[in-house]
């Protein structure tokens, strides 16, 4: 994989300013190979549509992939007759090569492409590029597999398309729905950094570009399209499918070995709303809830096992007290490490002491439930005792989480070094250089070997802004 482009971060996405009438905002590329029959009606229809509906200046670029028929002459004639049409000739075949070459040389801030057969209804073009113009998204793709798409094509192509996208989801964890629809757009600032990483020059170019963009955290907008299959398509299905599978293997291997420098595609810190420190909005609540529930389920099973064990040689109240005490210590330790991310021994005794207070509240709830059960009738069944204890523990669990979050493991990230979760680990946490404090997964740790490590221990090279003064958090 290519990794020779200079590293750097993308600028923050912004709405494109209103441009002069002569400056194209959109450059639509039509890659062609021996399309002398379809090229002229395609270009004229597209030009008429853009003239009528597109509110910005535009350009249509015909990218000729070394055609051997009269396609170059047709393209040259269209460029002479229509001011908004230009012609670009390549002496090598490859749709990906044509797109990468023309997009890299274009001065338009929004770059798009569509197939010459115009299988996709042109009414989807403005919805495709609008999120890129507004700064909402980085790339946009037409999807024939969205629920609201209306598609007319044979069962063979339908099966191949859906199978291919299932392969992408299973092997490369792709979340976009349609990789090969010939209807896509990208912001030029993204293309300038992303395209040097894309190695394929053929039909897999689209897939590779989307997978790398998605893995880098860029936003991909999907537009449902109306699409009618072209029965005269010259695409060789078997050869294209084989090349695509080879590309899937190559990209998957590169991602697995970490040979791609996807950090250069990162947006500036603060561009993502998740970077922001917003008052009255708790940080990491969803993640903590998931961790707390997982720990709670295991703790409850452990508690019930202990209770059943102690109940064999003691009364219900004694068995409940001992089982709850042992499971409470284990629960506090697990939540301290897994749910609230506190590492090291610092504060562990205090946390356990506070956990025991929370344990006392849980003991009062469960003991009170057992007392009420025994008062209702003598010698209740063991299954009834367990059912009552489960219900009481559910109530205690909600209260336990609130007390853990607000009192035992509060978020004190703004109170100085070592005051919040993660203190006592001996690591130096370095905050970002923006006014917004980073989330835990975005904090960096100086490794001392010319690299920085984030909270997931991924290594990235030192960037220029890493040398600026930082406030320790």
TrEMBL record:
Q: InterPro entries from the entry?
A: DPG_synthase, Glyco_trans_2-like, GtrA_DPMS_TM, Nucleotide-diphossugar_trans
Q: Where is this region: Disordered?
A: 414-473
Give me any GO biological process, just one. protein N-linked glycosylation
Q: Where are the transmembrane segments?
A: 289-310, 355-374, 386-403
Q: Which EC numbers does the record give?
A: 2.4.1.117
Could you tell me what reaction this enzyme catalyses? a di-trans,poly-cis-dolichyl phosphate + UDP-alpha-D-glucose = a di-trans,poly-cis-dolichyl beta-D-glucosyl phosphate + UDP
UniProt lists the family membership as follows:
Belongs to the glycosyltransferase 2 family.
Can you say what this protein is called? dolichyl-phosphate beta-glucosyltransferase
């Amino acid at each position: 994989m290519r990794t020779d482009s200079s590293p750097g971060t993308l600028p923050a996405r912004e709405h494109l300013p209103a441009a002069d009438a002569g400056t194209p905002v959109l450059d639509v590329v039509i890659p062609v190979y021996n399309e002398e029959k379809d090229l002229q009606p395609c270009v004229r229809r597209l030009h008429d549509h853009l003239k009528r509906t597109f509110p910005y200046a535009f350009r249509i670029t015909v990218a000729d992939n070394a055609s051997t028929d009269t396609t170059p002459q047709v393209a040259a004639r269209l460029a002479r007759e229509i001011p908004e049409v230009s012609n670009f000739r390549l002496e090598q075949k490859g749709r990906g090569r044509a797109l990468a070459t023309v997009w890299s040389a274009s001065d338009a801030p929004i770059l798009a492409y569509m197939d010459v057969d115009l299988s996709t209804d042109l009414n989807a073009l403005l919805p495709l590029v609008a999120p890129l113009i507004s700064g909402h998204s980085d790339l946009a793709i037409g999807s024939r597999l969205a629920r609201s798409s209306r598609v007319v094509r044979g069962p063979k192509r339908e099966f191949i398309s859906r199978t291919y996208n299932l392969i992408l989801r299973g092997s490369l964890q792709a979340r976009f729905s349609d990789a090969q629809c010939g209807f896509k757009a990208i912001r030029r600032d993204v293309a300038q950094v992303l395209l040097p990483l894309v190695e394929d020059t053929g039909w897999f170019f689209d897939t590779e570009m989307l997978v790398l963009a998605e893995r880098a955290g860029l936003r991909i907008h999907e537009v449902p399209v109306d699409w009618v299959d072209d029965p005269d398509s010259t695409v060789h299905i078997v050869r294209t499918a084989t090349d695509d599978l080879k590309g899937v293997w190559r990209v998957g291997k590169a991602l697995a070995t970490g040979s791609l420098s996807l950090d250069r595609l990162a947006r500036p810190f603060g561009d993502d709303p998740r970077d922001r420190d917003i008052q009255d909005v708790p940080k990491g609540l969803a993640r903590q809830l998931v961790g707390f529930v997982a720990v709670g389920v295991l703790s409850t099973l452990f508690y019930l096992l202990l209770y059943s064990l102690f109940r064999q040689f003691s009364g219900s109240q004694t068995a409940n007290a001992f089982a709850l005490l042992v499971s409470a210590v284990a629960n506090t330790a697990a939540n301290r490490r897994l749910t609230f991310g506190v590492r090291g021994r610092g504060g562990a005794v205090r946390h356990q002491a506070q956990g025991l207070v929370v344990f006392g509240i849980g003991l009062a709830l469960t003991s009170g439930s057992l007392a009420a059960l025994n008062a209702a009738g003598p010698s209740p069944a063991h299954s009834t005792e367990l059912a009552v204890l489960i219900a009481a523990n559910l109530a205690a669990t909600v209260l336990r989480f609130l007390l853990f979050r607000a009192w035992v493991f509060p978020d004190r990230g703004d109170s100085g070094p070592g005051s919040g979760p993660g203190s006592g680990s001996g690591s130096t946490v370095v905050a970002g250089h923006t006014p917004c404090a980073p989330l835990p997964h975005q904090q960096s740790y100086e490794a001392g070997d010319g690299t920085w490590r984030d909270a997931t221990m991924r290594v990235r090279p030192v960037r220029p802004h890493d040398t600026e003064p930082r406030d320790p958090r």
